[in-house]
Automatic annotation (TrEMBL):
Bilayer-crossing regions: none
Domain of life: Bacteria
One cellular component (GO) term of this entry: cytosol
GHMP kinase C-terminal domain location: 224-299
EC number(s) recorded for this UniProt protein: 2.7.1.6
Keywords: ATP-binding, Cytoplasm, Kinase, Lipid biosynthesis, Lipid metabolism, Magnesium, Nucleotide-binding, Transferase
Coiled-coil segments: none
Protein's name in the database: Galactokinase
Domain GHMP kinase N-terminal: 73-152
Gene3D superfamilies: 3.30.230.10, GHMP kinase, C-terminal domain
GO molecular function term, any single one: mevalonate kinase activity
One BP term from GO: isopentenyl diphosphate biosynthetic process, mevalonate pathway
Organism lineage string: Bacteria, Bacillati, Bacillota, Tissierellia, Tissierellales
Nucleotide-binding as UniProt keyword: yes
Amino acid sequence: MDKKISYGSAIGKIILMGEHSVVYGEPAIAIPFPSAKIKTSIYKSNGDTVLNCFSYNGALLEAPEEFSELKSVIKKVVEDLDEKLKDFNIDIKSTIPSERGMGSSAAVAASAIRALYDYFDIRLDNNTLTSLVNFSEIIVHGNPSGIDTAIVVGEKPLYYIKGKPLEVFKFKLDAYLIVSDTGEKGMTKFAVSKVRKFIEDNPARGKELIESLGKLSSDAKKIIKEEKIIELGKAMNNAQNLLKELRVSNETIDSLVRVSIDNGALGSKLTGGGLGGCVITLCSTKKEAISISNTLLNNGAKNTWISNMGVEEDES
């Protein structure tokens, strides 16, 4: 029997290394971003289902095109469970900025799916959740890497190669990561198509860039295990240069990266699809991270978050 109110939640993610090359079978490293999350609430009601999500509040089936993947996955879940799309309302709240490469679309889908299964009192296993989130992500991104789905379902750092079993990637680094928002929506689908076009037009160089990005990801895995944060920073910088050549960076990203490096960061790069979205910056101490974060805010960043990468600084 359905409940009067049910909940589902999901967290965001950050790609540390491996953007774009992961689509071509190279490895990537992704980490959960628990300070930004989505929460979905489902309330029992009467009549047609109402969706209250971000800027929209109205009938689910009349929601605008930007909610097409959410509508589709909600309808699919209801059909799969042999239930009816009526007599309940859906409320979604988010602290993950959308279209910033932080996994917002996958998190919205996962939280809604979890809430629906909870509402209809049906056990949801990770395989089913993965399949449903992937269904939604294909609508959004066309040819998604699968990283966002893996992170929102498993909520653990991952070393990921498309088509292969996921490897939980445990690490502790005595370092801090700044995530800075360019204020510009990332364009993952367009960025993926730009990379594909670059490879078609420049097959030899394109192959070299993709393989180099993959090697940086595999090297970063070893570097992280050995806790060599200076080397990780260098790998991030090298990755940014390659991504820039693939034409998925832009002036805003380049500016925030430059500000980070000029102010003492170990490394800085775009995260996610690029062409907007967010920049990640590696710092050796919390004090340095706070200082660089403030400088970024004074030089174009619209928002910043500071993430401890596993080892708290001794503040005594």
